[in-house]
User: Which sequence fits this backbone?
């Protein structure tokens, strides 16, 4: 179940929309924050607070790329490999993350430190390649500086 | 003269006090004294066209919404900047958020809408925080709330975070998403101006479009309509990435040529290499060979030169780039982002990607190019929304301009650009 | 008037419809997958692309509305190419496993590929694979065959209202998920199955068993489970029932079915069906010949009549039997000199209807189902329509979706997501809330409508509680009651849906009538069995003759008796529970039970059983060995619903034809009854069901002249071709405590009317048992955690009457301190735990002794 404080947060969100369903996307983010990923319990909790069928929530959540449908590591790397990043070597960075940390695309490193997700354009094309680590933005990545950056995330 | 990126060199440009110091919210002050219809008339007169990609005249959209007798009306800012190569709205969102808020409050007054939503892409967490802070400040300053500027006008603004779906940039899909549904486009008609969010009349405009409103108020529609191309005037944000010396976002008069953008403003091709191809308006717009770059970058001229203005996202490729690979990456994107609603796009994008993948890997067969063209042709014009059209036309145009490169991949069984 | 041209043919239209509809109405077929007449538009499959003059792109005919002067071509080379390409796209990830697909032969994809091609594939890449979904007892999902038309999703959320199916993921990784298990809220209506155009959703019941073209006969009949009386098609092959399917647009159900109707039919083929007559010899039931059995029944009944008088004989008629069966049955009992004839309709249906008709006029519950979905307010009291009459429940959900205010009084979890407000007073205090609502509405309306003077006189002296007092008595908010009263008063079209519990309680029923009167509302009486109305209309009542004619009116009684060649006794007979009481005290010595299981289905099971045991002679006529049959002296095997002709009368008071679809050896109920009748000297010369209908049409003034041809021709709504009875006004007194809520607190035992079962018949349906195999104790999460109980724990539920050990099921649909137990599973029925008192007017048993204790085991 969601904590009382979180339920309050969702109730406040509901009031921002003429129909409580408007609060579905933000509430899924909140549940993801609280449960770490959208577990069956997370869907159950949101379903109860919003009064929306679970099937609907699952259908909605699975449509969007930024909801997590399995547990993730301590840090989530969201690396862009779209064209502007690709031409500056983003794909080599994917291999590097796999070789160095054991983080497969869509998977988590064996030590549970990093999960890796490939993104479609994160709007940082002027300083490609770029990534988000959790909610921190990093750009102008190279094979050298990416490991340095990731050192900060234990 | 910068209108949209004014003051962004100021490290605190996102703060309401800095924005006010630079003349911010003066247009709102002017607008609240005006009748809503008069504002719509000015916008119409200015000739402003929507900056999201389709270039629909904003004044006309507003007039349709205004004519619908149903209330409440909703105002939505499309900040789901997802077209690959596009990052033009980001400086406004992160550095000049009050310009957007001011534009939206004026628009809300003009359209008698009391609730606004900024549908922001989930990939911009910084922008989310900055916008929320700016909105809080605007409430404190009385630019938002139940009594805007003490004039008894009501306007509330909420940031609604998307969650990673390109298709939500399409306005009806965006509305579905705002309503808590899968972001799939709706049948049109009815159009959002009549039946939009929560079944009520809804105006969806892009970040840059709303941000042009204070400028129109400030300098007046006549002066505004004299900026840039006569058919689609105003300042335009172009964002340039890829192999240029100085990539970035540039505010230039609408209709600046592609050549001028690349060579004058961006300092030419990086490292003195030669230009191989340009995608002028984001990944869904047709690729252009170097011979076609003397086109004015506006909604009217670009189709005449074989492409589209799109979001004004220019992607520049030098001689070292494998265009089969670029085309493949584009199709991976379309396959990943196809919403799945209509058959040709859902099945066709994946099919095109598989064939391109084989060609890039040296497993292409002679008839593959014809199949690519035929399958693309079966998608274009038959899909539910423009996403499928974009996917098909990307393939058609890459082959149209760079067919030998595809043939070479097939004949030589591989890619010569691979390291 | 709109004039358009399709394929060079000029078409005139009254109103703007889609191109597809316009074409269809004019015999022009446009292929389509995602479009479906009763579902929301989708426009996704792109199969219906057509050319429209002045439009640059091909247009989807299913979404494009016609405008005057539009010129459309539905076939051309461009269109054929587009359709072929759509089919090619669909086929790239479709398995082409038609040889092992049950849908082959009735598959739209197969048909269209035959018509448009492609004839060969050029897709060289690997197909996207999905495992077949076999983890469901009833529905087989095959995602590879799915073409993403989303019809099932739109059916499930848009019509059925269950919202148990979702498209998950996106693009070419989209898939339908999940139908069943307990993750979501599948109601197993199977309506998704009806609309699936390909073999992606199929019934497991006939998997791999036959091809659609091997069906030898399709017979239109009526569902045997509840009083909605859904029209269905029985598909037969080699004299075996293969499956039942609905038909779009047909019947009150308009193509919908519920789980019981769609999947429950297999009991017909059960190996446990009774085949031979049985006679108890030396304390054991033993096979006997029909002659011996019928002779025994006739002679024993005659003996008892001669020794103790006709009044010592009682008959319980069958709510699953046809009008013809029941007519013959009451004639037999009356022929034996007894008016002791009643049925399970006594549990609330008959009494409620009597009160409504007495206060508002005859035929007041003859209300078409379609009226519900068109209402702008629906009030539900005394039951959960989504469980009792599921298709009626769907209509309420549709009304809510269209914006109607839906208000429930009492538990109705099936409407949990489909209502404006749910009021939950003490289970015996529905009337208090109703009283509060009525006084608030009257306050709002200021005056009475003025059509029914005698009723209005009574209303003015009713001592209604104010909304505040009612709210205080029921611990509800007065504000809520006031608000809901305003919503009801402000609605222009109101439906009141009444369940058994409200119908059986005269006070609640009277208040329903008053509310209906002041709101000009239609009343819908829920009916748990397929022919409860038929029981009433056929005179299976101790005080009524066929056609709703009171026994007390001598002229009518004499006339009726004369046509049967008997003297009908003048004294009213005993009602259902009175018969049981009389059996217990020795007043009733013989009982004939047709198609009913009183030993299990009546409250206070133990006492009922003991009463039946005291009878000198008990005859049970049924298709299964029920609890009651086991106690019988003679058991007579009957034919089931699909094996006979006849009629049912549904809750709308619509009389509908049952048709024999398969032939097996045996006798229909009416035939057995007639055989007994002949042996006691009654004139019952019936060769076929239609002969009885002829007699009904002669004897019952309500059915005067009615024939099967009339019924099939649509002349089937009350008052048929006859005359309703004229002297009808009656107004019983409200009880002194009508507006007081019982003070008792604590957990309350409630009867669960399970969606997946119906009486004791559904026990013999393997499909229904597979989704609901056992009796459970349903508790709200709060109640369960208060008792330290988890899902799957066992708990002992005890009342004054006894105790049961039941598995705990936590149910989020339940509010408040209520514990739900069903009365369907052998040895595990709620009625073994509760007592009853008789309502003084309706004579319905009202449940008593709801106070329970629950202990974890």
Assistant:
């Amino acid at each position: 179940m969601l904590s009382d404080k979180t339920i309050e947060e969702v109730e406040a969100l509901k009031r921002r929309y003429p129909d409580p369903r408007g609060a579905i996307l933000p509430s899924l983010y909140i549940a993801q924050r609280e449960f770490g990923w959208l577990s069956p319990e997370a869907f159950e909790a949101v379903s109860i607070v919003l009064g929306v069928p679970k099937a609907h929530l699952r259908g909605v959540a699975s449509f969007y790329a930024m909801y997590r449908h399995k547990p993730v590591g301590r840090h989530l790397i969201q690396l862009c490999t779209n064209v502007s990043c690709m031409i500056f070597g983003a794909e080599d960075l994917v291999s590097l993350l796999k070789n160095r940390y054991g983080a497969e695309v869509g998977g988590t490193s064996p030590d549970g430190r990093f999960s890796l997700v490939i993104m479609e354009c994160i709007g940082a094309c002027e300083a490609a390649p770029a990534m988000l680590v959790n909610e921190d933005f990093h750009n102008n990545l190279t094979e050298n500086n990416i490991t340095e950056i990731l050192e900060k995330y234990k | 003269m910068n209108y949209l990126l004014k003051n962004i060199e100021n490290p605190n440009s996102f703060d309401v006090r800095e924005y006010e110091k630079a003349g911010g919210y003066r247009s709102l002050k002017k607008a609240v004294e005006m009748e809503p219809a008069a504002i719509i008339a000015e916008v119409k007169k200015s000739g402003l066209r929507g900056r999201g990609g389709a270039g629909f005249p904003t004044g006309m959209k507003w007039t349709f919404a205004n004519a619908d007798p149903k209330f409440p009306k909703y105002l939505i800012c499309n900040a789901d900047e997802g077209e690959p190569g596009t990052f033009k709205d980001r400086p406004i969102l992160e550095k000049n958020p009050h310009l957007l808020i001011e534009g939206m409050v004026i628009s809300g007054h003009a359209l008698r809408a009391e609730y606004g939503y900024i549908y922001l892409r989930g990939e911009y967490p910084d922008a989310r925080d900055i916008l929320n802070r700016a909105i809080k400040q605007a409430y404190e300053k009385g630019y938002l709330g139940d009594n805007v500027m003490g004039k008894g006008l009501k306007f509330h603004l909420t940031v609604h975070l998307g969650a990673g779906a390109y298709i939500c940039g399409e306005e009806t899909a965006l509305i579905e998403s705002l309503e808590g549904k899968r972001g799939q486009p709706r049948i049109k008609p009815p159009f959002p101006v009549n039946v939009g969010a929560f079944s009520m009349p809804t105006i969806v405009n892009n970040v840059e479009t709303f941000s042009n409103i204070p400028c129109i108020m400030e300098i007046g529609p006549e002066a505004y309509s004299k900026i840039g191309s006569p058919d689609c005037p105003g300042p335009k944000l172009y964002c340039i990435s890829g192999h240029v010396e100085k990539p970035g976002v540039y505010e230039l008069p609408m209709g600046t040529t592609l050549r001028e953008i690349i060579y004058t403003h961006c300092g030419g091709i990086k490292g003195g290499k030669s230009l191989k191809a340009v995608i002028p308006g984001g990944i869904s717009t047709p690729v252009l060979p170097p011979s076609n770059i003397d086109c004015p970058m506006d909604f009217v001229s670009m189709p005449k030169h074989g492409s589209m203005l799109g979001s004004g996202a220019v992607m520049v490729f030098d001689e070292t780039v494998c265009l089969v690979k670029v085309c493949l990456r584009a199709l991976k994107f379309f396959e990943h982002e196809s919403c799945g609603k209509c058959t040709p796009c859902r099945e066709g994008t994946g099919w095109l990607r598989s064939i391109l993948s084989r060609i890039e890997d040296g497993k292409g067969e002679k008839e593959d190019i014809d199949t690519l063209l035929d399958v693309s042709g079966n998608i274009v014009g038959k899909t539910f929304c423009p996403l499928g059209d974009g996917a098909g036309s990307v393939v058609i145009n890459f082959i149209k301009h760079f067919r030998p490169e595809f043939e070479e991949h097939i004949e030589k069984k591989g890619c010569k650009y691979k390291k | 008037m709109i004039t358009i041209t399709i394929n060079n043919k000029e078409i005139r239209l009254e109103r703007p419809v889609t191109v597809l509809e316009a074409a269809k109405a004019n015999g022009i077929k446009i292929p389509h997958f995602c479009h479906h007449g009763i579902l929301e538009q989708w426009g996704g499959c792109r199969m219906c692309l057509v050319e429209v003059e002045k439009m640059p792109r091909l247009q989807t005919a299913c979404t494009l509305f016609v405008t005057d002067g539009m010129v459309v071509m539905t076939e051309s080379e461009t269109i054929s190419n587009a359709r072929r390409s759509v089919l090619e796209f669909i086929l790239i990830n479709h398995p082409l496993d038609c040889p092992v697909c049950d849908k082959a032969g009735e598959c739209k994809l197969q048909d269209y590929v035959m018509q448009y091609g492609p004839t060969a594939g050029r897709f060289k890449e690997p197909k996207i694979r999905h495992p077949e979904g076999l983890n469901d007892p009833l529905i087989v999902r095959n995602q590879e065959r799915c073409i993403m038309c989303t019809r099932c999703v739109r059916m499930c959320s848009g019509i059925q209202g269950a919202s148990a199916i979702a498209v998950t993921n996106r693009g070419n990784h989209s898939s339908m998920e999940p139908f069943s298990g307990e993750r979501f809220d599948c109601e197993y209506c199977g309506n998704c199955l009806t609309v699936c155009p390909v073999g992606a959703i199929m019934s497991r019941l006939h998997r791999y068993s036959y091809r659609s073209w091997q069906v030898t006969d399709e017979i239109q009949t009526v569902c045997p489970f509840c009083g909605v009386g859904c029209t269905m098609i029985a598909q037969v092959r080699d004299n075996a029932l293969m499956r039942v399917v609905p038909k779009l647009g047909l019947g009150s159900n308009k193509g919908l079915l519920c789980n019981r109707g769609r999947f429950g039919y297999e009991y017909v083929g059960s190996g446990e069906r009774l085949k031979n007559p049985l006679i108890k010899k030396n304390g054991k039931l033993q096979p006997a010949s029909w002659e011996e059995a019928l002779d025994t029944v006739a002679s024993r009944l005659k003996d008892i009549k001669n020794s103790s008088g006709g009044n010592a004989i009682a008959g319980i008629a069958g709510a699953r039997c046809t009008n013809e069966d029941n007519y013959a049955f009451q004639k037999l009992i009356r022929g034996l000199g007894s008016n002791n004839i009643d049925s399970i309709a006594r549990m609330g249906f008959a009494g409620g209807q009597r009160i409504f008709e007495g206060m508002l006029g005859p035929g007041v519950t003859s209300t078409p189902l379609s009226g519900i979905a068109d209402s702008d307010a629906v009030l539900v009291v005394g039951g959960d329509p989504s469980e009792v009459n599921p298709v009626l429940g769907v209509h309420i959900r549709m009304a809510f979706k269209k914006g109607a205010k839906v208000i429930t009084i009492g538990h109705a979890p099936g409407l949990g997501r489909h209502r404006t407000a749910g009021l939950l007073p003490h289970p015996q205090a529905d009337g208090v809330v109703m009283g509060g609502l009525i006084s608030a509405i009257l306050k709002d309306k200021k005056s009475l409508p003025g059509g029914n003077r005698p009723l209005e006189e009574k209303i003015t002296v009713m001592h209604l509680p104010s909304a505040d007092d009612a709210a205080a008595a029921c611990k509800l908010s007065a504000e809520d009651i006031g608000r809901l009263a305003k919503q009801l008063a402000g609605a222009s079209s109101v439906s009141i849906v009444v369940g058994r519990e409200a119908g059986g309680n005269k006070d609640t029923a009277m208040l329903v009538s008053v509310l209906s009167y002041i709101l000009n509302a239609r009343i819908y009486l829920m009916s748990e069995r397929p022919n409860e109305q038929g029981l009433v209309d056929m005179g299976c009542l101790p005080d009524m003759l066929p056609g709703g004619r009171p026994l007390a009116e001598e002229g009518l009684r004499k006339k009726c008796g004369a046509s049967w060649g008997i003297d009908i006794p003048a004294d009213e007979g005993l009602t259902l529970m009175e018969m049981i009481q009389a059996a217990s005290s020795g007043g009733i010595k013989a009982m004939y039970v047709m198609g009913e299981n009183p030993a299990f289905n009546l409250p206070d099971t133990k006492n009922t059983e003991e009463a039946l045991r005291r009878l000198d002679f008990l005859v049970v006529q049924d298709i299964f060995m029920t609890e009651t049959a086991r106690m019988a002296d003679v058991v007579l095997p009957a034919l089931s619903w699909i094996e006979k002709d006849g009629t049912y009368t549904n809750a709308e008071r619509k009389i509908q034809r049952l048709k024999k679809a398969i032939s097996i050896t045996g006798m229909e109920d009416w035939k057995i009854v007639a055989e007994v009748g002949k042996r006691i000297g009654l004139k019952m010369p019936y060769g076929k069901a239609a002969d009885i209908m002829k007699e009904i049409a002669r004897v019952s003034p309500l059915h005067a002249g009615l024939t099967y041809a009339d019924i099939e021709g649509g002349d089937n709504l009350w008052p048929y071709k006859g005359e309703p009875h004229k002297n009808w006004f009656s107004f019983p007194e409200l009880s002194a405590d009508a507006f007081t809520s019982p003070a008792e607190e604590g957990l309350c035992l409630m009867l669960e009317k399970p969606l997946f079962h119906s009486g004791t018949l559904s026990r013999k349906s393997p499909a229904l048992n597979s989704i609901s195999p056992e009796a459970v104790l349903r508790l709200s999460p709060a109640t369960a955690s208060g008792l330290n109980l988890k899902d799957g724990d066992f708990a002992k539920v005890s009342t004054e009457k006894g105790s049961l050990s039941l598995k705990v099921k936590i149910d989020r649909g339940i509010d408040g301190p209520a514990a739900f137990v069903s009365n369907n599973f052998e040895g595990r029925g709620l009625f073994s735990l509760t007592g009853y008192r008789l309502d003084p007017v309706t004579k319905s048993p009202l449940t008593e002794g709801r106070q329970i204790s629950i202990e974890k085991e």
The first strand of chain B starts at residue 74 and ends at 79.
